[in-house]
Structures are given as C-alpha cells and as structure tokens.
Amino acid sequence: MTVSTEGTATVLPPGGPAAPARPIPAARRGLGSRGTLLFLEAAVAFAAALVLPLLARGFNFNPLDRIAQVSGLAAIQLRFALIGLVLIGAVALAVRLRGGRHFDLATRFASAGLAGLASGFVAAGAVVALHGTPWPMFGLNGDSGRIVEWAHAVANGRPSGSPVYPPAPLHTLGLYAEWFRGGNTAYAFKDLQILGAAAFGPLVYLSWRMLLGPVRALAFGVAPAFALIDAYKPYSQTVLVVLIPVLVAMVVSLSRSGTQGWRPLLLKGAGFGALLGVLFLTYSGWFLWSAAGVLFAALLYFPWREGRLGRLKGAAFLGASLAAFLVVAGRYLMVMLTEGQTTKDYNFRFDNFTDPAYYLMWRTDMPGKVGEWPLPGEYGGVGLFALVTFVGLGAAIWLGMRKPMVVTIAAMFISAWVMRMYIASNMYETQTVQLYTRTNNQLLYCGLLLCALVVHLISQRMAARSARSTADDERPAATAGAGSTGFPGREGAVIGAMCALLLLLGTVSSSMADRYMPAKENTYRILPWVSHTITEQDGSCPKYAPGGTCSKDGDQSWLSFIR
C-alpha cells in the first residue's frame, strides 16, 4: 500500500555530480522486492526502538534524585549518539564500498534505525523514571486508573465504564495483562507505556514511507512528530502522527485511481479503510478535527477528468475504503454517533482560559509555574515561531499548490482551526469544552509539516536542477558548465542530513524524556512521582518511595494542582 511521490533512485559515484550518474535498476537496489525491503526497514526500526529501553534497565539510579535523573538522561544520550554514529558511519562506508552499490540500502536501514532510536530514547527515559516501582505513571489515579479499571473489566467480559472510550487500547491492555502479567492490568499498563513510546518512531517513519524516501521521511515526517511524543498515554498522539500521512496517501491514491487496474485499486482502497478503522478504534478524536479538510481534498482530487470509467474507479476506491472501515470499526462508529452526542466535557482546564488563537504549546491540566501566558511576542503579541509556521503555510501552498500532500495537510490544518474556533465560541453558552484544546496538537503538527514540506519541495527542485547540470557536464566543454550548481553529490547531503537529525532528535527526545522525570510539582512530573508512593500488591513500598512511606492511592497532593 505504498504511494511514493518520488522518482527512481540514482547513485552518484564518489566523484560528485560531475561524474556520470549510475542508475540502479529496481531489481538490484537491495535484497529483493520493495515489499521485502520495507519489511526489513520495519524490523530495523522496531529493533532499534528496543535497544535503549533494554540498556536502561541496567541503570542503577534513584529516579527521585535530580542528579540521578540528569545522569540517566546523559547515559541514554551517550548510547543514542554512539549507536547513531555507527549507523551514519555505515552509510558513509557504503559510499566507498563497491562503487556505492549499497548506499541506498544502507541509507534505508540507517534512517529506520534513527527513527527507532529516537523514540527508544523517550521510552528509556520512562524506564528510568519508573525504576523501582511496578506501577504505571500515575498509578491508579486519573486517566491511568480509569484505563486500568476499564481494561480489567473488558478482559473479564464486562463492559467498560465508558462506551465512547476507544476500545482498542482497553482490549490490547487486557490481552497483554493476561498473557504477560497474570491479568494485572495495572502492572501491564507500565509495560505498554514504555513499549508504546518506543513504537512511536517506527510507526511514524513507516507511515511516511508510503509517501517519501527514507531520509525525507525521517526529516520531514518523523522529526516534526517528536514535538508530540508522549509516554503517559502514547496511543493518542501516535494515532495523530500516523493518521495524517495515511490520509494524505489515501488522497494521493484517489487522485491516481482513474488510471489503475481494478484489482490493485480495490485492494489498496480496502487496505486504507482497514487501517483507518484500526486507528479510529485506537483514538477517534483526530478524525473529527480532520474530517472537513479530508473531504475537501478528496473532492478536489477525485478523478473527475478521467472519463466515466475513471470516475467509476474513483467511486470504487472510496467504496472499498468505506466498506473495509465499517467492517473494522462500524460498531464503534455507531456508538459514537449515538451515545457520543450526549457525552459532554465540563472540565475547564488551564488552556481553556488562554487565547484560543494560541496553539503552539499545550500546557495540559498541570501547566507548572507560569506567569503571563501565552508569552508576549514581538509582533503584535505573536512570537517568531508562530510567524514562521504561518509563512511556512503560505510558502508550502505556493510551492505545492498542485500537490495532494501539501493541499491535504493544509486543509486538515484549516479544518482543525475552524472546529477549534467553533467549539470555543460556544463554550460560554454551553459551558462545555468538548476537548477543543486537543486541536493544539494537530495544528502544531500540521504547521511543522508544512514548514518541513517547504524544505522538501525546495530540495527537490535543487536536486532536479543538479541532475540537469550533471547531464550538461557530460556534453563537450563548449556547451557545458553554465548550468552547474556547484553543490556536492547526493551522498554528502544524505550524510549531512543524518548528522543534523541525530543531534536534533537526540536533543528533542532528551527534553521529552525529562518531561516525565519524577518530581512533586504541578507538571506531568507528578505522574511518575505518584507511582513511587503507592503500596505494591504484596504490601511493601516501592524501592525508592520518599521516606520509605507509601499508601494505597499514593501521594494525593496532585489534586491541588488541577484547575
């Protein structure tokens, strides 16, 4: 179900663009078919995601000591950097070996490995934060406690406490608990918090590989997603960052459906529908914010001009997608359309009292120490980061107005913005929130993606110009040289990009891991802190319980932090 938007691969020899380019036939680019290579990429990504969490299990730090937390983050960062440099070194070595024959293969695996390592960093941070306690973040309190309770009920054949809550996480937790934790959904949830954070990078990377090459998927899809990675309830943010490339790939396939054969057309449509059904069962909120934008993009790129047969194929593609979606998630969709209409959110949190036009950072219901918020910016109160995202939106539309990828993401951005303002504008009258602040994450991710796509589109044009210059250089000197760009070969660009991404992802992952280091304060650091204060099932206290004391529910000081 891959929908590539890029051309065929070309390996340039070490001599750079001035030397003749050597295309690599598809049959000789790797170990086998494209499907086999993607499977191997997935294996590398998921294996890399587990390396750092497994290594972190051997750390002997007191997770409640700040110096120990800093040492733990540094130890993870050191291992992340060393393994990442090994992957980049393999790419550099592939340039020289056998005339660069395996450069593309090494690039694939290194990109997949870096994506897995980055989310493995955050998962390793969760391992350090929860070292010495069997409980998940927040123990049996708040959302964690409800999820544990509902999953236990589902695992024992009883209905969950909320029919509208996505069923996939509850069933997954219940089954995992039965298989690996003797039915203890609380202890099992700790494992899935760590594994869910680790799987974030590989899942995002593989989703973007439907649209982009390895390095571009890492740089323009995975890197922006790390602004949202979450180790507390990893499934909700994972669905968002996977859903966007899946919807974009679906629109791209729809635009090409008029010229495809019937069998691949129907299979691809059914595949998209089934995948969207699984995502809907895992977390459905993002579908609401995205629906209007995706509908606009689908109508825009429907094969209207492909004749009657083309329009029929487009309708068949959408029909197969809808049928597969209903098979997978139809029952839950009916629940959402009926009981979901009567479900109201009356909990006003910190972000509900801030300017609704500000979406660049979601402070959650535990915002920490804040003064004036949002922070006053330089341009009419708007900061430079916001200006960059707005310029990126305009530039992406300018450069990619005819590209489904750009238009679909821009449409989803606008759709979420309109839904946000609509719900917020009715908030006073209805006295309900309806989770509209969650659109922060979608707006931020779409904005970052559009900025990244500006770089993507510009780099594509530079690469095309470089290829034309290379062709000109092969002609006699009298007619060549004027078109030369002066840029080095593609290999240098790939290695340079990977070095930059190694530092970027390592820094961001460290920050997101530090977000959950235990501390008794009005932030999400209180979540793992509480986990260290809850009595274990055998009656003992966790190893690093503050003062050696614990209780059934744990430290309840967090209640004073909730607005």
TrEMBL record:
What spans are recorded as compositionally biased (Pro residues)?
14-23
What keywords were assigned to this record?
A: Membrane, Transmembrane, Transmembrane helix
Q: Which residues cross the membrane?
A: 37-56, 76-97, 109-130, 211-229, 235-253, 287-304, 316-334, 379-399, 406-422, 442-459
Residue ranges for the region (Disordered) are 1-23
Highest taxon listed in the record's lineage: Bacteria
Question: Protein name, please?
Answer: Galactan 5-O-arabinofuranosyltransferase
Organism from which the protein derives: Streptomyces virginiae (Streptomyces cinnamonensis)
